[in-house]
Amino acid sequence: MFEPHAIRHCRNCGAAVQYRVPDDDNRPRAVCPVCATVHYENPLNVVGTVPVWEDGRVLLCRRAIEPRRGLWTLPAGFMELGETVAEGARRETDEEAGVAVELQGLYTVLNVVRAGQVHLFYRARLLADTWAPGPETLEAQLFAEAEIPWGDIAFRTVAYTLHRHFEDVRSGVFPVHVADID
Predict the structure, then answer these.
(1) Same domain, yes or no, for 122 and 169?
(2) Where would I find the H helices in the chain?
(3) pLDDT of 101-148, one tens digit each?
């Protein structure tokens, strides 16, 4: 859960920060009273893919870590500094599912305000039908729509993305979906 005012100490000098509205700003920020550094708290990006095999099945990963250990998710994780959204999505797919993909376009942009996150998923084509999940994944498996373990999906953003994917498969049109997820 997003915790406003989570910064306690200045990253530059270590002094305890004070929350106040700096000059030329419109909201409280963590401001260092010693070196005057203003620290901004911004959303984190979660990036991932909807990896699809040629027969239309989607690759899901069963989580080996908290939160939501043991539940199913699309391969995704936090974007790293120094990478693009697309690079992060490919990296996370490789790290979690152990498979390479060809990205087919940005698919969902999901605002998760309560967690201070934005989730971005790409449509992706699996380049092989074998995979080697990494340490954050208990197992990875292909699922047809009727086989998806809907009651065991780890995150609402993943369920939303999967529902849109299967609806769009039926229509043959794959727009970018933007939504706010509680």
Answers:
(1) yes
(2) 85-97, 156-171
(3) 999 999 999 999 999 999 999 999 999 999 999 999 999 999 999 999
Q: Which amino acid is at 39?
A: H
Q: What letters, b where the CB count within 10 A reaches 16 and e where it falls short, cover 14-34?
A: eeebeeeeeeeeeeebbbbee
Task: Read off φ and ψ for residue 146, nearest 5 degrees.
Answer: -70, -15
Residue with tokens 């910064």: 7
Q: Identify whether 28 is preceded by a cis peptide bond (ω within 30 of 0).
A: no
Alpha-carbon distance of 15 to 1, in angstroms, equals: 26
Q: Give the tokens for residue 70.
A: 């043991």
* Residue in 52, 44, 74 with CA at minimum distance from that of residue 137: 74
Same domain for 59 and 85: yes
Q: Residue 4: which CATH number?
A: 2.20.70.10
